Amino acid sequence: MKQRFPLVTQEPANNQTGPKKIPFYKVLLSVIQASIGVQNSKNRERDFTQGKFWPFVVAALLVTAAFVLTVATVVKMVLAK
Question: Is residue 12 classed exposed, middle or buried when 0-12, 13-18 and 19+ CB atoms within 10 A define those classes?
Fold first, then answer.
């Protein structure tokens, strides 16, 4: 049975030596879009077929840390007044 979203492509296409590497800014943008629920299916399929696991983990940790720090800063500012 064919996997719906394999992590890497099975065979190189068009004489390529392996799956394309997704630039980190696209990984970060994809994680942000997915976290707020607006990622389209084309990007999601690209992520699952061409992307590796660890850049998405790092990007998710960065986005989560930025979100938590932003919320904490806003709460401190509001409570200080």
Answer: exposed
